[in-house]
Structure formats: structure tokens, C-alpha cells
Amino acid sequence: MRKSHPIRRVVLATAATVSGVVLLLSLKPSSDPASASAAGAAPSAAAAGQESPQGGTGAAGTTTVDGDATQTQYGVVQVRLTVAGGKITQAQAIQAPKGGTSDQKTALSVPQLNKEAVAAQSANIDSVSGATYTSTGYKQSLQSALDKLKEASASSGSSSGSSSSSSGSAQAQAKTVTGQVAQTQYGPVQVRITVSGGKITKAEAVQAPKGGTSDQKTALSVPKLNQEAVAAQSANIDSVSGATYTSTGYKQSLQSALDQAGG
After folding, report:
1. For residue 112, what is the enclosing H or E element?
2. pTM higher than 0.85, yes or no?
3. What are the residues facing 199 on neighbouring strands?
4. If we measure between CA atoms, which residue out of 185, 156, 170, 172 comes closest to residue 247?
5. Which of 137, 90, 140 is CA-nearest to residue 117?
6. Do residues 189 and 172 touch, judged by C-beta distance below 8 A?
7. CA nearest 75: which of 31, 106, 32, 39?
8. What is the mean pLDDT of residues 201-213?
9. How far apart are CA 210 and CA 218, in angstroms?
């Protein structure tokens, strides 16, 4: 039987000792307090970094309001407004006529109406040629959204402090009155007025003759009648040439609105 050499045994023993020392050194950092502290601090720093982007006050002052859904001959139109700092920052139609040629008319008219609503900051915008029904429904829904904003602003103002309660009461004095429907030979006419401080600040036709040549006559006469009502502060306004029936119905409905508003 062959005997192992003494030198060989010494070399093997030395190698085993070195391996043991290496293993001990490799295990030491896991129990090092400094490294454990650094490992615990890293997640906290990461969490802090994730929290800061979530903050900000930009969205806090933004309000979104949906107007009433307005039924038109070709479908429903409904407008949504985004308001920040008391101004319309975005307008969009969340419902609009669709199917057949309505798809093309909606795609053509709605973007223009959205831009006009933001630019005018009111429902006093022009109808898009070739999309009269969609335009009319859009303006009606837009006006209802604006009315809701006014009501919300008035109620919030009345519940604020003494410095803001005066402005809240001023807003509360503004009211919207809708006149009775005046039936004409070509269709119903109905006028809505906004009164503030005893004066007409806005007039609009929520109903007007439509279909065929009535569309052109309505588009021509109603904006003029609206302007005259605000300028005259009464129903004593001139009829629009070529739209006698619409003008007569407008003045009748306007007078009934004034009667309801207290003259």
C-alpha cells in the first residue's frame, strides 16, 4: 500500500485553511451594520422619489361639466366642458349624430364647434354650414353646461367668507328665464334670456323653425334678434326681413320671458 508524502499532507492542510478563511470573509459583509443601514435607506429614498410627481395643484382647480343631451333630427348631441380659473379650457362632444352621412358631418362640424366654444367662452357661436342640426344641438347642450357652471359658482360663492360672499351674492342675482313657446306657421319659437342687475345680458333662441328653407332663415334672423334684444332691453325690436314669422314668434316668447323676469 502506497503511503502519502508528508509534504503533500502539509500542502493539503494549508489549502483547506485558506479556503476556510475565504468563506468567513465572504460572509462578513452581510452582518455589517453600515451596509445594512444603507440597504434600508435605499427603498425610502426611492419611495420619496415616487411621491413627488403625484403632487401638484393644476388639477385641483379644474371642473368638468356635462351639458344636457339634446335630441336633434339626426341624433343626440351632448357637450362636455372643462373649466379652469373661470375659463373654458376644453370643449368636446361626448355624443353626436352618427351613421351614414352623419359621420362625415359630425367629423367636419364638431372640431370647429369645440374650437369656437373655447374661443367665445359662451354658447354664442356660429353654426357650421351643412351641419345645422348638429350645430343647434351643440349650442343648446353647451348652454346647459354653462348654466350648470353658473349655478355651481353661485352656490359655492354664497357659502364662502364675507369677502367672497359679496361676489357670490352678485352671481346669485343673475338668473336665466325661458319664455313660453310661440307657435308660428313654420314651427315653434322659444327664447331664453339671462338677466343680471335688472338688465338682459344674453338672449338666445332655444327653439326656432327648422327644415328646408327655414334653416337658412333661422340662421340669418336669430343671431340678429338676439343682439337686438340685448341692445333694446325689451321686446320692442325690429323684425328681420324675410323672416317675419320667426321674428314675430321670437318677440312673443321674449316678452313672456321678460314678464317672468319681472319686466
Report:
1. helix 101-120
2. no
3. 196
4. 185
5. 90
6. no
7. 106
8. 91
9. 7
